[in-house]
Amino acid sequence: MARLPLSIQAIESSCCVNVPSKKKNAVYSSWIWVLTFFTYCSYHLSRKPISVVKNVLNQNCSELTPPAETNDSHWCDWKPFDGENSATLLGTIDSAFLFAYAFGMFISGIVAERIDLRYFLSVGMILSGAFCCMFGLGYTLSIHQLWFYVLAQVLSGICQTTGWPGVVAALGNWFGKSKRGLIFGIWNSHTSVGNILGTLIAAAFVTNNWAFSFIVPGMIIASVGVVVLFFLIPEPMMVGLPNPNLKKELERVSPPPRRRNSPDYAYANDDESAALLDENASTISYVEKDKGTESELIIPHNDGDKAIGFFAALSIPGVVEFSLCLFFAKLVSYTFLYWLPNYILNSTPYSPEESADLSTFFDVGGIIGGILAGMISDYSGMSASTCSVMLVIAIPMMFIYETFCSTSLGLNIFLLILVGVLVNGPYALITTAVSADLGTHESLQGNAKALATVTAIIDGTGSIGAAVGPLIAGPVSAMDWNYVFYMLMVADVLALLLLTRLVIHEVSHWRHQRRRNNLSLQ
């Protein structure tokens, strides 16, 4: 059973004794929102440096002044990335992280449901920081073996799987379905904020000493992990507050409220029987008198829920479709994430540092896209349709960006933001609000032990696509960058097709509701 951190125990005993539940819930839920925001922000911050540093691991040495006479056209490159196959090797580095992350995610979600999320996240963050620093030490220690960098990425990818199921499960326990799209949409900007900060930090050191491009982000995520260890409250019940995801189940199961002097019910102060609430029990029991007999209603308590299995999570309606859709949506997003600075460097006259800074506007668009998708989904109640519309518009926009990005700096920035909105909007919505909704689906009958598992299945499937995209983009970009964009457009088409059944269902439901509303007005 999860234990309350000693720091929170001290706060509870000194400051929260007479605080009203509503105010207490507002304070704690806001704190969890902020803490999980910066938690996952630090995860992405520590992933971003490789996309910046690869610009100096292999670059155009002819544009630089060599320190002495040399016939080596790759004198400025870092071995083993100094050969003609550098794009393939750099793609291998990306995929080492992403495949480890993808396959580790399926296990991580199951583990997260069964242990204390506080320990799960903090240990994962500290280890993620250590392995992020490990990659940077390759420069400090002059290591030129490919296996070292692949190993650092694999270990980092495995440890980073603690992040997404951990933060979504923790936040999902504090916020119900009301306004979830907007709340999670704003919250999901941590991904883009982390990418931006990671890019800026890495770019500040990339030219002079790229070891610090990894060491500084590694120290940041480890430090945030220590904060999580002392201040995360994974479940509201730990501080005497209700889980909002169980509210409907409680209303459905529990008897209607009665006056204290009603003859039908007995209370804790009555002599004959009592309503029992044991904080260590897995159930809440109400004892009702009905003509001399007693009946008992058992309401599931969060701590008594049994974590669901992998195949049980797959059987939840919509999990398979959204998981496969995310495979292609995340393929597109992560190809931009890992290769955009390199594309800008090769397609425009900007330096490696300027290319890295310019690529952050894609993440600015991602922030806007996540919030916009969440708001539209909340208003319409049609998550699949929201994703589909954005995917439809994203396909031609990627072609437009590839065609006109070199026209001017202003147009490049504008198109980058617009593409970021459309590419990251569906990805953000599926990995946050949709995952949380499916993890608390009505078919689970109030079981709160499904959030991390469902989230991990959806994000794990998406992460396989995230691994495939950069792996293919490396060798394809060596032929022509046009082919990379064609690949991304085809991926968005496939993501769109996978949502067809859900879109048809949502539209049919919307039309049915509209007819009912029109009839009620007549």
Fold and architecture overview:
With 522 residues, the protein is mostly helical. It folds into 2 domains: 406 residues, MFS general substrate transporter like domains (Growth Hormone, Chain: A), CATH 1.20.1250.20; 44 residues, no CATH class. It has 19 helices and 3 strands. A hairpin with a 2-residue loop joins strand 2 and strand 3. Helix 2 packs antiparallel against helix 7, helix 4 packs parallel to helix 6 and helix 9 runs antiparallel to helix 14. About 11% of the residues have low confidence.
Major sheet summary line: 3 strands, antiparallel
Estimated helix fraction: 55-70%
Structural class of the secondary structure composition? mainly alpha
Instruction: Give the overall pLDDT as a whole number.
Output: 80
Number of helices, counting only DSSP H or I runs of 4 residues or more: 19
Molecular shape: globular
Based on CA atoms alone, the radius of gyration comes out at 26 Å
Labels describing this entry:
2 domains, 19 helices, globular, 69% helix, Growth Hormone, Chain: A, 522 residues, mainly alpha
Summarize the structure.
This protein is mainly alpha-helical.
List the helices and strands and how they pair.
Elements: H1 6-15, H2 21-47, H3 49-57, H4 86-112, H5 117-140, H6 146-160, H7 163-172, H8 180-187, H9 189-206, H10 211-231, H11 247-253, E1 276-277, E2 283-290, E3 293-300, H12 310-314, H13 319-347, H14 352-380, H15 383-404, H16 409-439, H17 451-479, H18 481-498, H19 500-521
Antiparallel strand pairs: 1-2, 2-3
